Structure formats: C-alpha cells, structure tokens
C-alpha cells in the first residue's frame, strides 16, 4: 500500500506494511523509516471527507505525522488495523443516532457509519478514574481475543483525551431480561436453546482462560427471531490469573466471591444456574431483594425458593 508524506517542500513516497503487531512504513521492506507497535492507545486519526478517505495521521513522539493515501488503500489498511490499534475522533467516521443505554460507568450509543452506512453500537466510557480505565481495558482485551458466534463482535475502538469508545456490531432485538418480563411462559424447548448457546459461549470463554463475571439476563441479547443470542458487556471480564478485584451483579454472584475467593469458571456457571431458575420460576433464585443480597450472602442466610 503506497502513501506519501511531506518532508520540508518535497513529497516522499513510502510503502505501508502490516507485520507481527507492527505498522511498518518505508521505501522498501528492508529500509523501514517508521515502526509503530499495535497499542490500545490513541495512535491513528483517519482523514475522511465527503465519503472518502484521503489518508491518515499517526501520533509519533507526541506529534501528528500525516500520510496521504487513496481511498481504496486506506480502506484496506483500516480493515487490517480495526480492533488492533487505537483510533482518534470517532465523530469523524460516525453519526450519533441515539443513546440506548446508561450504566454506572458507561453510555451505550446507537451510531451510523459514514463509511458503510451501517448501524453500530458504541460503548462510551469517560476515562476519569482508575476503575473505569480498568473496565475499558478489560472489555477491550477480552473482545480482542474472543471470537465466537455467541459473543458480541468488536469492530474497532477510539481513544480520546476524555472519552473512549468501543465500537461493536449492532444487534436488533432485545435482552433476555426483557424477553422474560413479557413472556410469562417459556417452554422447555426454548429454555434448552437458551442454555445451549450460553454454555457453548461460556465453554469457549473458559477454554481461552477468561471468565465473564457478569452473566445475567440483561447481558444476553436475543436477535429479533428469538432463536439466536449473544453475550455482551465484558467490562468485568478478566483472565483468571490476572484478577485485581471481585465483581458481578447481586442476585447472580456466586456466594464464595463475597469471601474474597478468587473467581473461577464455576462463578459463571453459578450465574447461569440463577438464570435457569429464573427462566423456570419467573423469580430470582435468592429470595432476598437485590439491594440486600450482599448482606444475606455474607451472613450465609440463604432462603432457597422451591
């Protein structure tokens, strides 16, 4: 892929290569001038105007260096880099359509791409605390490494000075929580289909050394036909051996988590068991209200509904 950059008053032509976690820019492969490692930081700004790419800027030694490149090569380069390196200024490539969700540390936005005119979901996080940086990095690392039909797919990510965004495929449908709320009777065949897909995704997650730590109906999305589902929200996901804190949602957390025991794959399975109980009984497994779950579990006073 050919690009050009100005050096004083002259244009210099270079080739761009992608190799082993690096962007390489040079006159030839054996004479590389710029070597940029893939990082989860703000590194590339795409120059996009009136429906076409005209090049890109790379952050080198805290200064933006511009490289001109035609639209087709920019698309090819961007497709090779999506999800592997941090981009800058999401609003240059996407139009905000709506805010579809608000969480304790993030906003979920419905956006539309100026490049392919498709809808996507953007998870926006204000990077203003160590915890939120950790949530962002957890989700990013998990989605970079987990590729499965029942796991939300990340497209790319943007890192700004105040806010960062993870761009994911848009799923037109509803959460399992909403589905259960409006469907009083869910047949055994449907329950088996739901469990089978979640278990297949969890098996894949666990075999790759991750745990989700927040399996709950709100984090499972049904597509419109209610046959295919996707697990979302990997903000608490982590490698089993790299846990810095315990996490989860009251009502779905395994009891041992409250005794500062390191979470394992079994904690995700416990959460799934809570969902199974809810699918069958239309009630949460723990009799205590969500806001009192911590106290009840810590005191080990369980009242199992039968």
TrEMBL record:
GO biological process, one term: mitotic DNA damage checkpoint signaling
GO molecular function per UniProt: ATP binding; protein serine/threonine kinase activity
PANTHER family tied to this protein: OVARIAN-SPECIFIC SERINE/THREONINE-PROTEIN KINASE LOK-RELATED, PROTEIN KINASE DOMAIN-CONTAINING PROTEIN
Superkingdom in the source lineage: Eukaryota
Residues engaged in binding ATP: 124
UniProt keywords, alphabetically: ATP-binding, Kinase, Nucleotide-binding, Serine/threonine-protein kinase, Transferase
Gene Ontology CC terms, in alphabetical order: cytoplasm; nucleus
Pfam families: Pkinase (PF00069)
Transmembrane regions listed in the UniProt entry: none
Organism: Paramecium sonneborni
Keyword ATP-binding recorded: yes
Lineage, opening ranks: Eukaryota, Sar, Alveolata, Ciliophora, Intramacronucleata
Designated name of the protein: Protein kinase domain-containing protein
Family indicated by similarity: Belongs to the protein kinase superfamily.
Residue stretches making up the Protein kinase domain: 94-306
């Amino acid at each position: 892929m050919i690009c050009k950059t100005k050096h004083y008053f002259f244009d210099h032509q270079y080739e761009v290569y992608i190799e082993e976690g690096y962007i390489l820019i040079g006159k030839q492969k054996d004479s590389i001038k710029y070597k940029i490692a893939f990082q989860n930081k703000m590194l590339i700004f795409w120059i996009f105007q009136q429906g076409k790419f005209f090049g890109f800027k790379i952050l080198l030694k805290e200064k933006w260096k511009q490289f001109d490149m035609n639209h087709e090569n920019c698309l090819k380069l961007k497709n090779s880099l999506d999800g592997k390196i941090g981009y800058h200024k999401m609003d240059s490539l996407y139009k905000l359509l709506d805010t579809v969700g608000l969480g304790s540390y993030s906003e979920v936005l419905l956006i539309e791409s100026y490049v392919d005119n498709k809808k996507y979901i953007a998870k926006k996080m204000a990077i203003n605390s160590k915890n939120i940086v950790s949530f962002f990095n957890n989700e990013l690392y998990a989605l970079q490494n987990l590729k499965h039909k029942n796991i939300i797919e990340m497209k790319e990510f943007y890192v700004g000075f105040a806010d960062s965004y993870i761009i994911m495929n848009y799923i037109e449908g509803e959460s399992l929580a909403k589905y259960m709320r409006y469907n009083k009777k869910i047949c055994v065949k449907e329950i088996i289909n739901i469990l089978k897909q979640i278990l297949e995704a969890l098996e894949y997650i666990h075999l790759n050394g991750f745990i989700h730590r927040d399996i709950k109906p709100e984090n499972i999305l049904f597509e419109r036909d209610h046959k295919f589902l996707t697990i979302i929200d990997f903000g608490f996901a982590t490698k089993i051996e790299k846990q810095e804190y315990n996490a989860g949602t009251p009502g779905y957390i395994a009891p041992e988590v409250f005794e500062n025991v390191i979470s394992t794959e079994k904690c995700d399975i416990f959460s799934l068991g809570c969902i199974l109980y809810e699918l069958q009984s239309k009630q949460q497994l723990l009799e205590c209200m969500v806001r009192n779950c911590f106290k009840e579990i810590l005191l080990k006073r369980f009242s199992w509904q039968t």
